[in-house]
Design goal:
It comes from Pocillopora meandrina. Helix content is 46%, strand content 6%. With 628 residues, the chain is an alpha+beta fold. α4 packs parallel to α19 and α9 crosses α13.
């Protein structure tokens, strides 16, 4: 039954004995399931949630009223008024606002120091990157740090041109979510070769691609695909995006490249520890688009840079914004509407929603996707293209996309075919730990399936967030493929594990690498240019964006990606109930004392083996929630 209800002891399963109705004789209500607390506490919880529903409401985005996205119904001014005084949120909220103001001041300072100057050498790009990185870090310790300054890390400034570094960024960089294995029609994973062929340039000799590639097995491409050796980057959401006017570059001898949807082929060599190697890039999905290979020198370098820019934009808009921020916001809003502060799940979810996706979404959305704002300035498809990507991505996104290992398997990226994949391997360690912590926590409060079924606050929460919800609040969150009720302890554990993973580690993996890879223009230029001062087949300084674009690029990257307020499960000592306090403290210590050293050793071995390291899923660098 959806809605507030009183539950008598007789309705509880006989196996799930209630340990007394604390709160009957005192003013303090305990941390307890909604049906297991006293009638007085149930009434108090009901009144609290009723008041919260007037403050926190889920509505369509005002300027996208016909879209399925739901977010908090507050203006930016009201949000500042509410959260700047909120007893739980105010400290971090005020730090976040100071960071936002500080970033704007840093950009003003750079323009003042560099007025009228433009790029004169490749070293100038390094100076811009370094200026903004250091300036952002100086905003305040300990919240503004980059793990690459403290952990073993390959120098991207030095190695950005290497093919190996280009390949490994698919596995340890800003976007570990797009690479897929090319599969045969008999398989149900990856991208089928029969489908991929439909968008390839038929004039290119795909059959002999590996045969014509130095240091690769001399076998046909179809045979290599059957042997599970070939992988691809493909961005359907970028197909046929129109260009918008370049509002950051007006010089007539510089023409911005149109947006493209490149297709990149990689292969693994069985005799080279199955390391990923780039072997071909088709520049776009448009018929007749040129294909370049490592033998094409300057054109190959330009092709790689085109992929890098496409990958950065796709990651930040589709994977990061749509599939993380926008997907998860309803959960953080609804937890205040449907789960009492005394509910065991509210007790922990609030730490993973602290500051709130709602705040970062509301304050940053227009600054990123508005006309003449950041993504309009940075990417050739402008704000219209960015909004198009975000909407298409969100429409295709469902709760199924939060299945961490399912996603890895679906893309055909198992260990046997791809040995080096830090996001997968380190992520599994973190995911498994979250899963164990959730199991222990849930078992403290839910003794049987009937406990889950009778917890009306939990059921109301699920009913509101799920797109299949019913009744007055049902379906407000509009999350597809999310059950509108939970019927077992196991289903609750699976749901909560995924939610905490997405809010913490998954967001960390998609967000924080941008500071190291995405903020450096030479590595990931958001735009490329045809310049009359240089031949079209030569990589030149003049192919890159100007100083103003590069500065805008850097400040956006660092403003979004180097702020961390806390670390995963560090809040155990703050929980009022001993049961929950002991569990979360136990697993925080496990992360710090067992997981952290193991992952540090992995990174040391990667560094020694000339691989990119992956500090972003070290426990001390994973925030509890979405903080930028």
């Amino acid at each position: 039954m959806i809605g507030f209800q009183f539950t008598s002891v007789a309705l509880l399963c006989t196996m799930c004995l209630v340990n007394g109705y604390a709160g009957i004789f005192g003013d303090e209500c305990p941390v307890e399931l909604s049906q297991k607390t006293s009638r007085a506490c149930q009434e108090r919880r009901y009144r609290q949630l009723l008041a919260n529903k007037n403050i926190y409401q889920l509505v369509p985005i005002s300027f996208l009223p016909n879209e399925p996205i739901r977010w908090l119904n507050m203006t930016s001014d009201k949000m500042r008024a509410v959260f700047s005084k909120h007893p739980f949120e105010q400290w971090e909220f005020n730090i976040y606002l100071a960071k936002t103001v500080g970033g704007a001041e840093i950009l003003k300072q750079w323009h003042k120091l560099n007025a009228g100057e433009d790029i004169q050498s490749f070293a100038d790009f390094v100076k811009i990157y370094t200026f903004f990185r250091k300036a952002q870090e100086q905003l305040g310790d300990p919240y503004f740090k980059n793990p690459s300054d403290e952990e073993p890390f390959q120098n991207i400034i030095k190695y950005w041109m290497r093919d190996k570094v280009f390949a490994e960024q698919r596995l340890a960089g800003v976007n570990p979510m797009t690479l897929m294995r090319i599969s045969t029609d008999r398989e149900n994973v990856g991208l089928k070769w029969s489908e991929l062929k439909k968008v390839l340039n038929q004039e290119f000799d795909w059959e002999n691609l590996l045969i014509n590639t130095p240091n690769m097995p001399k076998i046909s491409l179809p045979k290599a695909i059957s042997s599970k050796m070939v992988f691809v980057l493909r961005y359907p959401l970028l197909d046929y995006l129109p260009a918008m006017p370049d509002i950051m570059e007006s010089r007539p001898h510089r023409k911005m490249w149109d947006p493209t949807s490149p297709i990149t082929f990689f292969a693994v060599h069985p005799n080279n520890r199955n390391n990923l190697i780039p072997i071909a890039i088709q520049m776009d999905v448009k018929p007749g688009s040129p294909v370049y290979t490592p033998k094409d020198d300057g054109l190959w370098m330009l092709a790689k840079l085109s992929v890098q820019g496409a990958d950065l934009g796709y990651n930040q808009v589709a994977e990061h914004l749509a599939k993380t921020h926008l997907l998860l916001e309803p959960f953080c809003v609804s937890k205040d509407r449907q789960l009492s502060e005394n509910h065991p799940l509210h007790q922990i979810i609030k730490y993973h929603c602290r500051l709130g996706i709602s705040i970062t979404d509301k304050l940053a959305f227009q600054l990123l996707l508005g006309p003449n704002e950041n993504l309009h300035k940075l990417f050739p498809y402008g704000y219209r293209g960015a909004v198009n990507i975000a909407l298409k991505s969100y429409r295709q996104t469902s709760w199924k996309d939060t299945d961490f290992m399912g996603n890895i398997k679906k893309r055909g990226l198992d260990f046997r075919t791809l040995r080096y994949f830090p996001y997968r391997d380190d992520g599994k360690f973190i995911f498994d730990t979250i899963q164990k912590a959730v199991r222990d926590y849930v078992n403290q409060y839910y003794e049987c399936d009937e406990d889950v079924q009778s917890d009306y606050e939990l059921q109301n929460f699920m009913n509101e967030v799920s797109a299949d919800g019913v009744g007055i609040d049902g379906g407000n969150g509009n999350v597809k493929d999310l059950p509108n009720e939970l019927t077992s302890v196991d289903s609750l554990m699976a749901f909560l594990t995924r939610l905490l993973w997405q809010l913490s580690a998954q967001h960390a993996a998609l967000n924080y690498p941008v500071a190291d890879y995405g903020g450096f223009t030479l590595n990931m230029p958001t735009k490329l240019y045809q310049d009359s001062r240089v031949s079209d087949d030569v990589l030149s300084l003049f192919n890159f964006p100007n100083a103003n674009i590069s500065a805008q690029h850097a400040i956006v990257a660092f403003s979004l990606t180097n702020y961390r307020y806390d670390s995963l499960f560090d809040y155990g000592s703050q929980l009022p109930d001993k049961r929950g306090r002991d569990v979360i403290s136990k697993w925080f210590n496990f992360l710090q004392r067992r997981v952290q050293p193991s992952l540090e050793k992995r990174n040391q071995n990667r560094f020694k083996g000339d691989h990119l390291t992956y500090p972003y899923l070290l426990p001390r660098w994973i925030p509890n929630g979405v903080q930028t």
